[in-house]
Amino acid sequence: xxxxxxxxxxxxxxxxxxxxxxxxxxxxxxxxxxxxxxxxxxxxxxxxxxxxxxxxxxxxxxxxxxxxxxxxxxxxxxxxxxxxxxxxxxxxxxxxxxxxxxxxxxxxxxxxxxxxxxxxxxxxxxxxxxxxxxxxxxxxxxxxxxxxxxxxxxxxxxxxxxxxxxxxxxxxxxxxxxxxxxxxxxxxxxxxxxxxxxxxxxxxxxxxxxxxxxxxxxxxxxxxxxxxxxxxxxxxxxxxxxxxxxxxxxxxxxxxxxxxxxxxxxxxxxxxxxxxxxxxxxxxxxxxxxxxxxxxxxxxxxxxxxxxxxxxxxxxxxxxxxxxxxxxxxxxxxxxxxxxxxxxxxxxxxxxxxxxxxxxxxxxxxxxxxxxxxxxxxxxxxxxxxxxxxxxxxxxxxxxxxxxxxxxxxxxxxxxxxxxxxxxxxxxxxxxxxxxxxxxxxxxxxxxxxxxxxxx
Length: 456
Hints:
Layout: H1 2-17, E1 33-36, E2 41-44, H2 45-53, H3 56-60, E3 68-71, E4 78-83, E5 88-91, E6 101-103, H4 106-114, E7 131-133, E8 138-140, H5 142-150, H6 153-157, E9 165-168, E10 175-180, E11 185-188, E12 199-201, H7 204-213, E13 224-230, E14 240-243, E15 256-259, E16 262-263, E17 268-273, E18 281-287, E19 293-301, E20 308-313, E21 321-329, E22 335-342, E23 365-368, E24 371-372, E25 377-382, E26 391-396, E27 402-409, E28 419-425, E29 433-441, E30 447-454
Parallel strand pairs: 16-22, 24-30
Antiparallel strand pairs: 1-2, 3-4, 4-5, 5-6, 7-8, 9-10, 10-11, 11-12, 13-14, 15-17, 17-20, 18-19, 18-21, 21-22, 23-25, 25-28, 26-27, 26-29, 29-30
């Protein structure tokens, strides 16, 4: 298995290099660089200098991407960036040092996403040394102020954008006292009191990277072409649609919309509940198929329209079956329940009887030719995506095994919504049989599946 993984990593690199429009980001010309074996990513030039001089691992975390081009959500301009576990570095060559490397406003992005109406239960610090920041009207004190002052201050952390409050961690589902800043989220870990780890930073870079560039289904699902489901024709002919997971048996939700309501473990589910009084406090919890509570119960205020919006991140090892998200007003006792299902789809079936390799079932893509042997080149193309969106891709073997981590392709979509042409030279790491190459759009969730055969 180890050798297979190494071969597939090299194959992924070959596929990425085969297409100039994948947009490999320019790298700094400086000789200083460092590859981190923990993630396999390389940091170099001014980014490495910034990492070394601004807290290193404790402050920035490991690199989780290589350099790439990304359009900023703040000003709409395109910058060379690199993602780390706790930060995103942006190259600003137009600025003199030390401002030629700036950090993205990850704290602002996450706070507005999770708490569009502001987080509930906030309490301004009452510590004797607390400091009021007039720019945002928020107060920082105690251990949080000490950390802010000794770990880069305004340049590294940014201004406070919330007061202190209790939040359930998206990583381990434990409750911590937190405070949001423009570029960071401080977490108080009382179990490490008196040590340098008493205040830790949330992995904002990890969250943002997964949200923008990794597929919602951490365990990719390759649709089954054996029983294509016809859909009404958009043009002269019908287009087969691959079947997905078993989504039967989901009860009807009450006062709640769940998006999606059926997907593979590892998916992020979103919930919109309605029918509450504006501003009232709503108790929220999720239950697994065995009726045990998932994570900690928490509360959110209803917005001005009497609605509550929350999301739930499942894990690849989350139990399959019918789940429920429950909400109840603490004042009027109005209830909302949303049901959803975690179900894994089956891998592609073996070749049909009487055939050596069946490539039917391809959806929104093509392989030319659709078969070959080691040393041959197959050219792939895919359609139906949004121009400029990030796209992930992966391979599935004839045995249904997903090989390699789904790889993000920032800016891999052409202006007309197509991907390709992608020439790929078949090598000895591909066992004979039918393979699948799957693409999935990060914003559209559109899926293209292309089947091809490798012969002896």
